[in-house]
Fold:
Amino acid sequence: MSVTIKDVAARANVAPSTVSRVISDSPLISEKTKRKVHKIMDEMGYQLNYNARILAQKSTKTIGIVMKNSTKESMHNTFFPEVIRGISALCSKYDFSISLTTGESEEEIFNDTVKMVGGKRVDGIIVLYSKKDDKVVPYLLESGIPFVVIGKPLIESGNIMFVDNDNVQAAKEATNYLLNFGHEKIAYIGADTEFEVGEARLNGFLQAMRDKGLDVSNAYIKDTQMDPNHGKQVVAELMDLAEPPTALIIPNDLNALIALTSLGERNLKVPDDVSIISFNNSMISEVSNPPLTSVDIQIFQLGHEAANCLIELINDPDMFKKSVIIPTVIHERSSCTTLKV
Amino acid sequence: MSVTIKDVAARANVAPSTVSRVISDSPLISEKTKRKVHKIMDEMGYQLNYNARILAQKSTKTIGIVMKNSTKESMHNTFFPEVIRGISALCSKYDFSISLTTGESEEEIFNDTVKMVGGKRVDGIIVLYSKKDDKVVPYLLESGIPFVVIGKPLIESGNIMFVDNDNVQAAKEATNYLLNFGHEKIAYIGADTEFEVGEARLNGFLQAMRDKGLDVSNAYIKDTQMDPNHGKQVVAELMDLAEPPTALIIPNDLNALIALTSLGERNLKVPDDVSIISFNNSMISEVSNPPLTSVDIQIFQLGHEAANCLIELINDPDMFKKSVIIPTVIHERSSCTTLKV
DNA sequence: TTGATTTAAGCAACCGGTTGCATAAATGTT
DNA sequence: AACATTTATGCAACCGGTTGCTTAAATCAA
Structure:
């Protein structure tokens, strides 16, 4: 069908191996021959067949991305495109390709991963989450393939490369930010302890409160899905308490927007009646009304560093398993203010 | 290194070809042999090497996705994850993998595409946009690879499979929706005629206005980027006109949110002072304040259908080049109301 | 000029599967 | 029992590159 290395070789009166070496610009080939072969490759419209190369070199130059793919529960909307962008940037630079899992359920995602790894379709894997009772990471560990987790692995974290924020610290800072405004009745939303990030942030929140000598009622700790109705209900439950919170910590901007609307419906003003601090610092936080004070977790950077680590690891599989922490920074806007007394 | 078909064959005292046929569950092999070989495969932990299969079968079971990858300009945030989800669903079902372009600039994206297609890394391509002066589609056409465009191709559209909304119609309906509320001074934002979708919707808008016998000032037609400052500026320009519009058509929910905020800052109320209709019907439109009336373009479905068409086309490359139109539907919420007289 | 050394190119095995064709074994027919 | 069919398996070429090793040619040293 298409032009192969042999066709080129025949036309150029050289051996296929010579053509192959021309392609990889081997120093074993003279400039003269290289020119000749290149000319003929162009004439014939030769194009390298990557699959053949992959098979021979046993290297795919492809990294697999394992992601939760379901609608709501998954990554906060903005997370996914942004982290992909970060990964892409690096891949593009080092000429790697990206392959995605397509599964919806945990089972499917696991199978996709096995197919990628066992089937030798990728050189390395980036896992976009860290979750309890997850089968993917243990499998990867056992398989020996290079991989990086975005988020802090819950097992053998010393033995696994990961890229993460310091979520405990980030939540602590967010909490302290509110505490410094005089708030003491602070509710924490997003306590999904299935995912490591949820647990870590909850811990940070609790620590900050304890450091300040404050008790936290369980009624102030809420989980939430990425769902308007549920979000509104959570806000309602909090505000209907005998002692409603005066400040809210919310795990992402979209949920914060939901809260904002929900509070508005009850005629509660942000920040005058309730202060809100959220995570992600996406464009939503910039344009909501009022603009949200939000913790920038630097999603692009997370992806970028993860890809960076992974490619290093692929090039030297025995390297020291480092982990990198991406700093977070609070972007102050107008959703927090001093507690009215 | 790992277990190959030959290792299994040796251990089972059969030929490699037999093992291969066992794997593909060929009717040529007896049940007895199948059981025996399967048992040994399990014992040895055999795993198919996909690259070898790809090379031999000349089929990758992978589809490539060509996307604009840059931050702002690109797809409205929510579009990308949602369309991927739609594509994934189908791919998962038919056991296809997904490969992404990683490039940022048009040039890089084009090169990524060539590498995918020329390098035989994919069986087909989905292009996530339709743009003027685009080199990708002509290249794909020439290459002969099966591909589907999401959006209406600007060249040879009879010869190219595509999945799209009827954007002219959608914009017309949105416009009529506002006209029926008595609005006549309607501004259209998002007139980026580089992309087909921008142009089509603009035409729909103009048609609807013309049908109603209304002139449209050029001052009412604005382009906008996915950037808060620019968005606000656009709104400002419109509202500072001697005759400011009473209704706005905005190409996506995030920009509508920007507009909402921008109008709020000028103490203009939505919908009392200005009506807004936006596109995409993302979660933002549901939770903004007020909730936005938005045209649902069914992004998931666009991806789903595109993948569906592509896989059909891969299975039968000579098939009739159909195109499918995904219906749009206006979700009424609270951002539009009758024009005050 | 001759032998040693460097440089350039070719040979052939290999990566790990798939598949058309040949052949052996099993079954059926008369 | 002898031959025609059917069914099950094996042989070997092939997919399109890569690479260790060998060999031929060119350059160098003496």
